[in-house]
Automatic annotation (TrEMBL):
Residues 22-400 form the AMP-dependent synthetase/ligase domain. The lineage of its organism: Eukaryota, Viridiplantae, Streptophyta, Embryophyta, Tracheophyta. The keyword Ligase applies. Keywords: Ligase. The keyword Ligase applies. This is 4-coumarate--CoA ligase. One of its GO terms (molecular function) is ligase activity. Residues 450-527 form the AMP-binding enzyme C-terminal domain. Belongs to the ATP-dependent AMP-binding enzyme family. NCBIfam families: PRK08162.1. InterPro entries: AMP-bd_C, AMP-bd_C_sf, AMP-dep_synth/lig_dom, ANL_N_sf. Pfam families: AMP-binding, AMP-binding_C.
């Protein structure tokens, strides 16, 4: 049987790009994209992508050339997720929240041949390319719904002109013929909160498998209405850029995920699905009190959402599924698959179960929690800590031009995530912390996420983050940074927060210091900058008092930052 050869009819490279021509055939007249007053059908979207791919090839964009784009969630960015690979090139969607220096760092490293720039980011892009010796060709993306007439110095081409030009040469430059599913599809950069961002390379195979897996595990059927509240630059929209084409859905594009934009889109278009980092939950909660007329399915990830926060957002009609992923894993690699028997549990217990990261994606060959020293699996007891490790075809190819970091990320056939977690008796994984965020106090490991989950239960707390601060006897002790809901600043004091925690957790886990902030510092993907908070916490010192043996300490502040 091994002598039977592969043939063109029975062995075709896997690629998520194949979802687009299928959508154009099966869902030809169905709306593919809605953006303001602009709409396209799947047939139109396919044609526009073919045109752009032809135009890129005419511009001598070759296989493995990088094409970068700095744009919000607009039709152009969506189309480029298909058109750039259809030209044989590699798409690099840049985080739009980065400053010019960070954008310049990425351009210098990615070395794109072309940089597409939305009119909203002309200033940032202009400043970013100013000091680059061999800057990429610039293409301006004007607003397709309401053209602004904006111009960009050095940009001789405009996106719609390029699409039109491609339409004239379709016959000469057909879509690139993919021969190897290991070919590079996209280049995504890590957020770089603790070091310089690394360029993560995805293969066509990895993106295809992850897309199909996630669609199935989240239970998306055909013709959903998907709201782009999640940035497409974030792991290519967790692969839903391609997934919505696979099921003939409608992409509702908004330039910014404000409460007004999201709620207006939900009401106007009958949104059925959306993705969001937990940071968006507070935006949705603060802007509305009454439940939605129809439920909206929400996939969340990026940071462990506290159970209390999940309860609040679900009260509004957002049905949350929790997922876990990372840039190096092509997005989502664990989903908290919901079991029907949990439906009868109390709301607080359902929220606790839903806050877990869940079970491995179908595209993975393995997901485990292991002792990073022995590489042995930890017991399924829900308490023994280990590092979450992954293996499977949806993992990244590696870090671009960084062989050392690539080799360091893989060990004994596994990818080491750096996340600390436990495995519950039912096999569901729960993240307890990043390895660098675990607080070691007097030899005891304190998971900052557990302390944060208690802080979120306080009715006045809007956001919370816990990091280590120095302690004269125990080495480290928890320090909490908290932002309060509007109207609570004058009412809630540090003693009340500390007392609240002491009633709900072991005393050694209770924050010894609570620092109030208007907003917690976040990176461009919405994650709290714990490195910055740790540096701030180092300025706090605890002075032991006569009551130290009872666990009471007096706080002094070395300096205020």
């Amino acid at each position: 049987m091994d002598s039977l050869p592969k043939r063109d009819a029975n062995y075709v490279p896997l690629s998520p790009i194949t979802f687009l021509p299928r959508a154009a055939s099966v869902y030809a007249d169905r709306t593919s994209i809605v953006y303001g007053n602009t709409t396209f059908t799947w047939q139109q979207t396919y044609h526009r992508c073919c045109c752009l791919a032809s135009a890129l090839q005419q511009m001598s964009i070759l296989k493995n050339d990088v094409v970068s784009v700095l744009a919000p969630n607009t039709p152009a960015l969506y189309e480029m997720h298909f058109a750039v690979p259809m030209a044989g090139a590699v798409l690099n969607a840049i985080n739009t929240l980065m400053d010019a220096a960070s954008v310049a760092t990425i351009i210098n490293h990615a070395q794109p041949k072309v940089l597409f720039v939305d009119y909203q980011y002309i200033r940032v892009a202009t400043e970013a390319v100013r000091g680059i010796d061999a800057p990429p060709l610039l293409v301006l993306i004007n607003d397709i719904d309401k053209p602004t007439g904006a111009a960009m110095s050095g940009a001789s081409l405009e996106y719609e002109q390029l699409v039109a030009r491609g339409g004239l040469v379709l016959a000469r430059y057909p879509p690139h013929d993919l021969r190897d599913e290991w070919d590079s599809l996209t280049l995504n950069y890590t957020s770089g909160t603790t070091a310089a961002p690394k360029g993560v390379v995805y293969s066509h195979r990895a993106a295809y498998l992850n897309t199909v897996s996630l669609m199935l595990q989240w239970g998306i059927r055909h013709e959903p209405v998907y709201l782009w509240s999640l940035p497409m630059f974030h792991c290519n929209g967790w692969t839903f850029t391609w997934g919505i084409a696979a099921c003939g859905g409608t992409n509702v594009c908004i330039r910014a995920p404000t409460a007004v934009n999201m709620y207006n889109a939900i009401a106007a278009h009958g949104v059925t699905h959306m993705c969001a980092a937990p940071v968006l939950f507070n935006i949705l909660i603060e802007a509305r009190r009454e439940p939605l007329p129809r439920p909206v399915q929400v996939l969340t990830g990026g940071a462990p959402p506290p159970a209390a926060l999940l309860q609040r957002v679900e009260h509004l009609g957002f049905k949350v599924t929790h997922a876990y992923g990372m840039t190096e894993a092509t997005g989502v690699v664990m989903v908290c698959e919901w079991r029907q028997r949990w439906d009868t549990l109390p709301a607080s217990e359902r929220a606790r179960l839903k806050a877990r990261q869940g079970v491995s994606a179908l595209s993975l060959a393995g997901a485990d929690v292991k002792d990073p020293i022995t590489m042995q699996s930890v017991p399924r007891d829900g308490t023994t800590l280990g590092e979450i490790m992954l293996r499977g075809s949806n993992m990244m190819k590696g870090y671009l031009r960084n062989e050392g970091a690539t080799d360091g990320a893989f060990r004994d056939g596994w990818f080491l995530t750096g996340d600390v977690g436990v495995v519950h008796p039912d096999g569901y994984v729960e993240i307890k912390d990043r390895s660098k965020d675990v607080i070691i106090s007097g030899g005891e490991n304190i998971c900052s996420v557990e302390v944060e989950s208690v802080l979120y239960q306080h009715p006045a707390v809007r956001e919370a983050a816990v990091v280590a601060m120095p302690h004269p006897r125990w080495g480290e002790t928890p320090c909490a940074f908290v932002s309060l809901k509007e109207g609570n600043a004058a009412k809630v004091k540090e003693d009340e927060i500390v007392s609240f925690c002491r009633n709900k957790m072991a005393h050694y886990m209770v924050p010894r210091k609570v620092e109030f902030m208007d907003d917690l510092p976040k990176n461009p993907t919405g994650k709290v900058k714990k490195l910055q908070l740790r540096e701030r916490a180092r300025a706090f010192t605890l002075r032991a008092t006569q009551g130290e043996q009872l666990g009471h300490f007096a706080l002094t502040t070395a300096s205020r930052l």
